[in-house]
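DATA SHEET
Item: assembly model
Revision: 1
Owner: S.N.
Input lines:
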Amino acid sequence: MTGQPWDASYRDGAAPWDVGRPQPAVVRLASEGGFAGTVLDAGCGTGENALHVASLGLPVLGVDVAETALAIARAKARDRGIEVEFAAADAFALERLGRRFSTVLDCGLFHTFDGSERPAYVASLASVTGHDGTLYVLCFSNEGPDTGPHPISQDELRSAFNPSTGWHAAAIEPDRVQTRYHDNGAPAWLATINRI
Ligand SMILES: C[S@@+](CC[C@H](N)C(=O)[O-])C[C@H]1O[C@@H](n2cnc3c(N)ncnc32)[C@H](O)[C@@H]1O
């Protein structure tokens, strides 16, 4: 949770997931009006997704434990003239932000946590998502050839996000996550989850 192991992956060139552009699934969601109100990008990395949503005029906060990633994200925002906020924060303690968000994005963070860590993360997300707010989880899927590391099943998503944890999984659709080592991305789930 110090962020040091994660930070190291940003110090020596682009990390495997750091594709240098927003994920197509996020671009599509944004073009469909999927982002509204105040937006949180949990585990924002070097910020491409947060920057894309902020470029549409929405107030966006990207948080990460990796200071190097945050420094890269802030430099991109400066260079591109995009107004967006990046801050160091632990996704397990989001309530410490003291803020509420209408839309929350998790692109590639949920699938890094093992089963024992998920309840605390899911509760942390719930603590900052306004009622009727929307959470998008884009994670590696366990279905299809050439799956990414830590693939997740639909059942795992549904058992993490359900009414007993304050969520309703409205849709879990097959999608792709682009990486630096898959030609056409890896199989993914795009879950649309509502805070109840
Ligand atoms: C697989 S990367 C995805 C980064 C970014 N969302 C993207 O799509 O490029 C996961 C990110 O989550 C961050 N992370 C891991 N554990 C975290 C935690 N407990 N709190 C906040 N960020 C965390 C890592 O530093 C890393 O930047």
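QC remark: The chain has a mean pLDDT of 96.
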